[in-house]
Amino acid sequence: MKIRQANVADIDALVELSRQIGEIHYEKAPHTFMPPSPEEKAFLLKALEGGEYHFLVAEHEGSVIGFINARIMINESIPFIVKKTVCRIGTIVVDESHRSCGVGEALMKACYSWAIESGATSIRLEVMAFNERAKAFYQKLGYVDDFCIMSRQIA
């Protein structure tokens, strides 16, 4: 397996991976997530080309089997939050047929190294409350609960 920078040629694989994670999220939380749609291709292309995100893929035998994207953020607007450099992971997904094989861990390790190189003092990510498998994965890697986002549906 190889971890490398994503590029536009990877778009079809990225769309498929996005569909996989999108279906899970829509099934478990339709009040928050939309079903996968053709608009995701344009969204992913913009993320790839925009330069705001560090976008990595895991490749095995010439096929993209996972991706992670992250960006560096510094709080500049909220005076009561420490102004530190944070790596914020946007999405990580591994192809259904390659889960529990070390792909996610390799992607997280590569992102961790990039975060250090970028001067980050912490890494943050959000995980949905229903996603017990993902929570266990992150905890295994040393991540702990730091924030809790609560919601209430009105209509």
From TrEMBL:
Tagged with keyword Transferase: yes
Domain N-acetyltransferase: 1-155
TM spans (from-to): none
Pfam families: Acetyltransf_1 (PF00583)
Name of this protein: Putative acetyltransferase
InterPro entries: Acyl_CoA_acyltransferase (IPR016181), Bact_Acetyltransf (IPR050832), GNAT_dom (IPR000182)
GO MF annotation terms: acyltransferase activity, transferring groups other than amino-acyl groups
Keyword tags: Acyltransferase, Transferase
